[in-house]
Every structure is written in structure tokens, then in C-alpha cells.
Design goal:
The protein is an all-alpha fold. The protein has helices at 2-29, 31-45, 52-72, 76-104, 108-134, 141-148, 152-156.
């Protein structure tokens, strides 16, 4: 039963992290394309255009590094918590605000898409909190380093 739990934790971590790795790589490889779309989003949210590139770099780093750490299970609790905290302003700025604006402008399809996007982020945030609270499972570098190390009492014997 324990090995099934560890397999499920591994597969769950990978599935949860893939969206971040894919998005982070996309931002790095297509930075100029993202900058144009992001600057429009930033402008709508009242954020200065001078923050577009710094925001993209931070976003790409959080997504890519955090996602990779979660996949291999190294500092997975911290990675999940950092991505969770990062998703709060991202969701509010890019999806909840856009949803509210679409509702006010009676843009039904746009409102529906933004609602799906922020609910998706909320669901992902729930998964991230589960990893942060429960840990990465037995098939992870975190578990390997905690069981592979010789404890001081065992070493003395």
C-alpha cells in the first residue's frame, strides 16, 4: 500500500508541475512574444510597462525552477509553497480582474474563459498546498536524502 501511495505522489507531482515547466520554458524561449501580450495585461491592470520584463523573468524562474524541483522531489514542499504564493497575485491580476471586467462589459464568452482560468488556478493551488503539507512522497530526492543519511546515533554504534 505504501508503494502505491508513493507512485501516486510521484505521478501527481509530475502532472501538477508540468504546467509550470511548460509555461516557464515557453516564457524563456518566446520572451518577446510574451512581452507584448503581457504588457497589454499589465496596462489593463494598471501596472507600469517597465515591470513587464522583470515580471516575466521572475515568473519564468518561479515556474521553471519550482516545477522542476517538484518533479524530482527536491525541496518539493518549499517549491510548492512558493508557486502557491506566486499564483495568488497572478490569479487576481490576470484572471479575476479580467473576469470582473468581462462581466461588467457583458462579454459572456470572455467572462466564462476567465472564470475557468481562475478556477483552474484555484484547483492547482489546492494541489500545491497538498504537496506543501503532505510532502513529495517516498519516490523523491527529499525522501532519499532523509533515509540515505546515517543518523548520528546510528553512526556512533
Amino acid at each position: 500500500m505504501e508503494s502505491l501511495r508513493n507512485v501516486a505522489a510521484l505521478v501527481g507531482r509530475i502532472l501538477l508541475a508540468l504546467i509550470f515547466v511548460y509555461s516557464g520554458l515557453g516564457k524563456i524561449t518566446h520572451m518577446s512574444n510574451f512581452a507584448g501580450a503581457t504588457s497589454a495585461h499589465f496596462a489593463n491592470a494598471g501596472i507600469p510597462s517597465t515591470l513587464v520584463y522583470p515580471g516575466l523573468y521572475v515568473s519564468a524562474a518561479v515556474e521553471l525552477v519550482g516545477g522542476l524541483l517538484m518533479i524530482v522531489g527536491l525541496k518539493a514542499r518549499w517549491a510548492a509553497l512558493i508557486i502557491f504564493l506566486w499564483l495568488i497575485p497572478v490569479t487576481l491580476i490576470f484572471h479575476v480582474a479580467d473576469y470582473s471586467q468581462a462581466v461588467q462589459q457583458h462579454q459572456v464568452m470572455s467572462a466564462l474563459i476567465q472564470q475557468i482560468m481562475y478556477l483552474k488556478n484555484i484547483a492547482i493551488m489546492g494541489g500545491l498546498l497538498m504537496v506543501a503539507a503532505m510532502g513529495p512522497g517516498g519516490f523523491s530526492l527529499d525522501a532519499r536524502s532523509s533515509t540515505g543519511a546515517i543518523s548520528p546515533t546510528r553512526h556512533a554504534a
